[in-house]
Amino acid sequence: MRSLERHRDVAAYALGVLNEAEAFRFEDHLMECPRCAAHVTEFGPITRQLMLYRRSTPPFVHPMAKPGPQLLNRLLEAVAARHRARRRRTLYAVAASVVIALAGPGIAMMASGDAGAVRVVEATDARSGVWAQVTTENEAYGTQVELKVKDGAGPRACHLVAIGRDGSEETVTSWSAAHHDARENTMTGASAMHTDEIVRYEVRTAGGEHLVTLKPR
């Protein structure tokens, strides 16, 4: 497969439509091509929307059928709920700042203790030496995820996988670890599962090797 053809396989790989042999060849290319690794990550929102469509569509519906109004309404409601949540957070922040300004530092100490729906978990695997930190925030559509990772054993393509309580798995984000670069890398992604539906996160190589497990408290 020529290099240009490998670049063109980014979308097919991200959407999971390559066969096993093609996916294996593309993952070899992904380990040496930071541009393709970045493009795979960029396809994350699209794959999540397709997953939502698949979950909301009965199995007997033809794959080329147009999305019905129910899916559109759900997506619009999710967007509206997210906007309302942002407005509430802004209003709460303004109100809190007013209270703090009036009541002094004693109230400020009390107000700073609540982290809301944001959760942070980190772990280092003794065998692989990989360190990772996952910060999650529950959203209307699922979970927003920020991943920080240190991996000095590159180059290799890696994934962050969310494992649900029902055993289901979902790739949150993908990246390519640079050659023997142990500096901290930060990626963002999202899961269609909500935070309370996720029992753990795993960092794995594209070949399936387990690197580190993170279990939310």
Automatic annotation (TrEMBL):
Keywords: Membrane, Transcription, Transcription regulation, Transmembrane, Transmembrane helix
Start and end residues of each Putative zinc-finger domain: 10-37
A matching Pfam family: zf-HC2
Residue ranges crossing the lipid bilayer per the database entry: 91-111
Domain of life per record: Bacteria
Protein name: Putative zinc-finger domain-containing protein
Native source species: Streptomyces regalis
Lineage, uppermost ranks: Bacteria, Bacillati, Actinomycetota, Actinomycetes, Kitasatosporales
